[in-house]
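Hello forum,

I keep getting stuck at the same step: I have a sequence, I want structure tokens, and every attempt I make locally crashes halfway through. Rather than fight my setup again tonight, could one of you with a working pipeline run this one for me? It's a single chain of 412 residues.
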Amino acid sequence: MKVLIVNSSDSHGGAARAAYRLHQALLDQDIEVQMLVLDRSSDEQSVLALETKVQKYCPTIRTIRDIIPVKFYPKRGSGLFSSSIVSSSALTRKINEIDPDIVHLHWICSGMIKIEELAKIKAPIVWSLHDMWAFTGGCHYDEECGAYKERCGRCPVLGSEKENDLSRKVFLRKQRNFANIENMTIVGLSHWIQERAKESTLLKGQSVISLPNPIECDRFAPFDKVEARALWGLPQDKRLVLFGAMGTGSDPRKGFEALREALHRLDTKEIEFVVFGSSEPEKSQDFGAKTHYFGSLSDDVSLVTLYSAVDVTIVPSLQENLSNVIMESLACATPVVGFAIGGNSDMVEHKENGYLVKPFDTADLANGIEWVLENEAYDGLCQKAREKVLKEFDAPIVAQRYLELYKEVSDA
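Reply #2:
Ran it on my machine without issues. Output:
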């Protein structure tokens, strides 16, 4: 079995981290697997970089070309929209030269591949959905629009009032070209996105299953809390609340305003906040208590020790697929609080290993944080957090499930 994993990067972004973890998990199971990317950070021989003249001399050109059509919508919001109009066929040529038994697509936007090129891939395709893009007219999250169930147009992400807008055109391009793909299996990383994909017009008739991302539980494991706090210079006598990705505070989907409102509802005499993913801004974000900023973290050791240093992790996203932050935090035995939306319930079991908040209820978000921090059975929450990930998301278990899928698809 020869597997090729395709993603825009091997390290930058949540999809890249998840795809790379699957790549490593398959290697550990002695599967013949390679990873093909545009932006390569790894020096592993099994990770291949697609090198074209455009990529070599100006790697940002492909991204710029892809977003040009979006620029014609001055009322667009901050949500990501990808039209995938790049014309290079280098990726599909490279895939077919490698000649794998299975091509496993992950995040392929930012000018990586043109929609029309997908049908030229000769091998069976498995496509993991890290967001909604595969079945929408170009948005990565639909802001609860729901137009993908019929056909897109009047796209709220574009701020468009026209039926025949860019989202409709991208939708129709996908509809024409997906019909020409002979063997494609869609993997919803969460049950939530699996259901959204099943109800979409574009993926009707396709096999849509649910399989999660893996995580290396021998690497993401609890670290002594006292030592972790000492390493980060954090107080030993405070309750610490962690949240991340505040660098994307301009994206309403991340729930930044809901989080800030909830934090102001807390009695913060004994609480301090910890932020990763963003350095301290010049203008205070006013969370109502002392806040420690640790910037962007990319290495696993830093993440493990930070998750282990805190008492609870907050993920306030308003739309979420299968959050790496939630999975990583639970693996490190740190309970999680988040809204009961998207794929959060695939990982967080309400009042068992964390707290699922009534959607968008900031008072309940504050209640959830307090419930975890003041829980008399806190050690039990931590134990169940770790057990959940070991049972359902540990890399060897998930890799075996993907191998079974690959065999089934290749035999079809």
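The first helix runs from residue 14 to 28. If your local run keeps crashing, start a new thread with the error log.
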